[in-house]
Amino acid sequence: MGKEKILKIIRAKEDRKKALAEQSDKATTVEELRSINEDIKRINAEIEELRGIVADDQSGDVADRTKVVNEKGDAAKPEARGKQLDDPEHGFESRGRVDLDSTPTQESAEARNREYGKSLKEGRSITVTGGTIVLPQHTGDTINPSFLQSSNLIDLVRQVPIPGGETYSQPYEISTDDAGYTGEGAEATAAEVKFGKATITKAKVTAYSEMTEEVERLAEAPYAEAVLGAVETSLRKKLAKEILVGTGTDNTLTGIFSAKATAIDAGTDITIGKIDNTTLDSIIYGYGGDESVEGMNLLILNKKDLAAFARLRNADGSKFHTIVMNGNGGSGTIDGTPFVINSACGSIADDKTAESAYCMAYGNPLNYQLTIFSDPEIKKSTDYKFKEGMVCHRGVVFAGGNVVSANGFIRIKKAAKA
């Protein structure tokens, strides 16, 4: 074999070494890296021996020594281990650039191995199948949020801060008597103004959560921030529901549906058996005094009842109501009438809802006052469960609430089944 033929083989092997180096950068397992590293070492040895043949340039034994090198290379080729590799006599696919010297290439593969070992030690590559394949497990560095968990109602009612207070009383006007005809010398007709007073007392609302110190310090995703946000969300969820169903007893809010919401005359409650094309009008025109229609106020309802409104159809099959969702999906309008969803409401459309259960409320949301006696506070402690390495978060808010306007809401009950 001539000198030019040997140089051609050397170039082919160098090209193959380039391709293997490129392949090592894309390797995903330690097993694959080891195989590539072995191939590179073998090719380096073959290249060095062929270069020695060229240097000797002894025409009598060049062919024999070249044949020996190729036979050694054939015996160590990956196809002998069940892998397909291009024939060096016919060229190799070039896949990248790398230093042709054997030392840097070998160090690159070894560095890759060390990086995989580091990942294993730190627990990022953890799935082992059959004891031979290690697959890296990747975790996102963000946390996807859940659905809306707190009703928007809490942001719509009147909020009054009274720092350090214990109770709060809000007077409201109930009615004014009619004037009357009066004869000469007779007493004037009494026309008294009737007033009421809504009392709001302080209630303590808390939320508590724990997590391990490993989660706070080591996790790539921001679990610590999510836990803090969850404590705040928990406080909002509770208050948003209590605005409706708070019992008004000691250390609780007085909700719109409570009998202790004395600003509402229970005689104004209306009863509805099913949601049809007259339901919304019955609610709107049933609210307010005898002398006016109060316009577009807020309808508070369960999501199931909103769906019942959406299912109503005209004779031609078109939708009876136009429902538009706003913002985060927790509120919107029905034919222009604002609504907000609150899961604390019963559902008229749900057969499981008990008779006479309160299901909706309609009125001006500012007629309910949420008094904040102390700003919400969230504290973190590592002392309580120091031995277990737990990080504790505790949120607290002192608040109270009540209806503060005469018949500020009309309440809708579920009628008995026909």
Tell me what the structure shows:
- Helix content is 32%, strand content 24%.
- It is α+β, with helices and mostly antiparallel strands and 418 residues long.
- The chain has two domains: 3-135, no CATH class; 153-414, Major capsid protein gp5 (Major capsid protein gp5 fold, 2-Layer Sandwich).
- α1 packs antiparallel against α2 (30-56), α2 (30-56) runs antiparallel to α3 (62-76) and α2 (30-56) runs antiparallel to α4.
- It is elongated, with a radius of gyration of 40 Å.
Beta strands, count: 15
Number of helices: 9
CATH architecture of the largest domain: 2-Layer Sandwich
Largest sheet: 7 strands, mixed
Q: What is the overall shape?
A: elongated
Q: Give helix and strand order, one letter per element, not per position.
A: HHHHEEHEEEEHHEHEHEEEEEEE
Secondary-structure class: alpha+beta
- Domain module count: 2
What portion of residues is helical? 25-40%
Average predicted confidence as pLDDT: 77
- Please list the strands of the largest sheet in the order they lie side by side: 7-15-12-8-11-10-9
State the fourth-level CATH superfamily of the largest domain: Major capsid protein gp5
Taking all Cα atoms into account, the compactness measure Rg is: 40 Å
Would you identify the regions where 5 or more consecutive residues have pLDDT less than 50? 78-104, 119-140
- Give the DSSP E fraction (strand runs of 2 or more residues): 15-25%
- What is the CATH third-level topology name of the largest domain? Major capsid protein gp5 fold
CATH class of the largest domain: Alpha Beta
